[in-house]
Design a protein that fits this description.
Layout (H helix, E strand, L loop, with lengths): L2 H11 L5 E5 L3 H10 L6 H12 L8 E6 L1 H4 L9 H7 L3 E5 L4 E3 L7 E3 L5 H11 L3 E8 L8 H21 L2 E8 L7 H21 L8 E2 L16 H15 L6 E4 L6 H15 L6 E6 L1 H11 L6 H20 L11 H6 L2
Parallel strand pairs: 1-2, 1-10, 2-3, 3-6, 6-7, 7-8, 9-10
Antiparallel strand pairs: 4-5
């Protein structure tokens, strides 16, 4: 394990008020999104989609790293340049999703555990040789009647720690993603309590597995009431609850926290991140950044619709959303920024 190198990469991922673009959707998930918009569900369509994303002009101004899916690491641009090389050439750090998905946890009805540890050491070595410098593993925690159980939290925390240890051994910075899902009727308070329990358990296991906190990035959920909760929290209330939870659970040695969007709208995700940085940035031990997927991609995907003639407009929308989130990192995001993107929406309308 090269400690200085890992710490340097982790630092670069959250430097200069930039964030991460998560484009690591599995093929079935990507195909579902394509199907809703009438886009062909083919490998070539996915390749084309990912190519115009990573070649978006100015993307590196706001994005420090891109999380890829295995298929993307093996795809090439139209000029035969590997996509992973095109990303690095643009000054963006390539990363890779390495878990194999959440599966039913035996003996725990309604709960999941993420798998993918078998053969992971060899896969990480291959990805490193291909050019990846960080990885991602997602665990999902569901809130419901009597869940999450202690067994589910422990099983996922252990898997995250084993994964993170293997990453650092291979020279890759692990993105540790324990996601408490938004679905449900739970309150803001319950989300905060469960998220704190999950995070403290995860870091306990990371410590046990000798994972260096300076060489990892945490990717948690924001503290939010369930989507079906009758009482929804305001932006400042979410910011306060999220930061309070993180201060209780996350070691100061961790260089950065990059939030998942988790199904939030693009504007809400930006507004909530902005509020956290406005209210707390100067007093926090770690950077608060973003690692959004749909909250950056979805507006651009809806513009693209699989049409080559719409690529320029889609790239404009993608760059705009990335810039909005960089502004949110600075505490400078404002809803009026959204009006600046109306031109691109009319181009492909």
């Amino acid at each position: 394990m090269n400690v200085p190198t890992l710490a340097a990469i982790a630092g670069k991922l959250v430097a200069d008020d930039k964030g991460l673009l998560a484009m690591d959707e599995s093929n079935p998930t990507c195909n579902k999104r394509f199907a809703k918009l009438g886009i062909p569900q083919t490998e070539e369509a996915r390749r084309s989609y990912r190519e115009w994303i990573v070649t978006t002009p100015g993307l590196a101004d706001s994005i420090s790293g891109v999380i890829l899916y295995d298929e993307t690491t093996r795809q090439k641009r139209g000029d035969a340049t590997p996509l992973i090389d095109a990303i690095a050439d643009a000054g963006i750090i390539p990363g890779i999703k390495v878990d194999t998905g959440a599966k039913d946890l035996a003996g725990h009805s309604g709960e999941k555990v993420t798998e993918g540890l078998d053969g992971l050491r060899d896969r990480l070595q291959e990805y490193f040789q291909m050019g990846a410098r960080f990885a991602k593993w997602r665990a999902v925690i569901t809130l419901g009647n009597g869940i999450p159980s202690r067994g589910c939290i422990e099983a996922n925390a252990h898997a995250l720690a084993r994964y993170a240890s293997l990453c650092q051994e291979a020279g890759l910075v692990p993105i540790v993603e324990p996601e408490v899902l938004m679905e449900g009727t739970h309150t803001l308070k319950l989300c905060c309590e469960v998220t704190e329990e999950v995070l403290t358990t995860v870091f306990d296991h990371l410590y046990t597995q000798r994972v260096m906190p300076e060489g990892l990035i945490l990717k948690p959920n924001m503290i939010l009431p369930g989507l079906a909760c009758p009482v929804q929290a305001g932006i400042d209330e979410v910011a306060d609850a999220t930061v309070r939870c993180l201060l209780r659970a996350v070691p100061a040695a961790v260089p950065g926290i990059v939030f998942l969007s988790g199904g939030q709208s693009a504007e809400l995700a930006s507004s909530r991140l902005n509020a956290m940085n406005v209210r707390f940035k100067s007093s926090l031990p770690w950077a608060l950044s973003f690692s959004f997927a749909r909250a950056i991609q979805q507006p651009a995907l809806e513009l693209w619709q699989g049409k080559e003639s719409h690529v320029t407009a889609a790239q404009h929308a993608l760059a705009h959303r990335a810039l909005c989130n960089r502004a949110a990192r600075r505490g400078e995001y404002d809803a009026t920024m959204e009006k600046a993107d109306t031109a691109s929406k009319s181009v492909a309308g």
